[in-house]
Write a structure and sequence with these properties.
Elements lengths: L2 E6 L6 H13 L2 E7 L11 H11 L6 E6 L3 H8 L3 E6 L2 H18 L2 E6 L9 H9 L10 H10 L3
């Protein structure tokens, strides 16, 4: 049995994330998606529990995916869930440098390898930061996020 960890802030989860989770669910026996509190990203729109719940609702159709919320090092989460690998999605070449640096650091301190999954061109431009900004100003993001996320964004910014 192989288990993979997909960590991220997922604030909020979007269709690019769901694509990576879907691909991972076909490659690995078990997928654990971890909504993490990332102090480097500052204040979040949704707290960890809200993000984990949106993830659960968005991947409920995938039977081998489990969602957890954590506030600690990714490698500690990987150890806690028994992950054989960590996966990271790549949208563009610019993502590769920082993700590779993290992958090397994670390997050095834990022995867990990272597998990169490139996103489809249709999702390569989608970023949670942009989703938040568009939604905040009343823009339509329904084509870029799962329905549970669109609903929560609409509720958050209802006038």
């Amino acid at each position: 049995m192989s288990t993979v960890l997909y960590p991220g802030s997922f604030d909020p989860v979007h269709n690019g994330h769901i694509e990576i989770i879907d691909v991972a669910s076909h490659l690995f026996d078990d997928v654990v998606v971890a909504a993490l509190r990332n102090p480097q990203k500052g204040q979040t729109m949704f707290d960890v529990d809200e993000r984990a719940e949106m993830l659960r609702e968005s991947v409920s159709h995938l039977g081998n995916v489990k969602v957890v919320g954590f506030s600690k090092l990714v490698v500690e989460v990987a150890r806690d869930v028994g992950a054989d690998f960590i996966i990271k999605g790549l949208r563009a070449v610019s993502d590769f440098e920082s993700e590779m640096h993290q992958a090397h650091m994670n390997l050095a301190i834990s022995g867990v390898h990272t597998v990169f999954i490139p996103s489809a061109t249709t999702h390569s431009f989608v970023a949670s930061k942009l989703i938040r900004e568009i939604a905040r100003f009343g823009g339509d993001v329904t084509s870029m996020v799962p329905e549970p996320v669109a609903k929560r964004l609409a509720e958050r910014f209802a006038e």
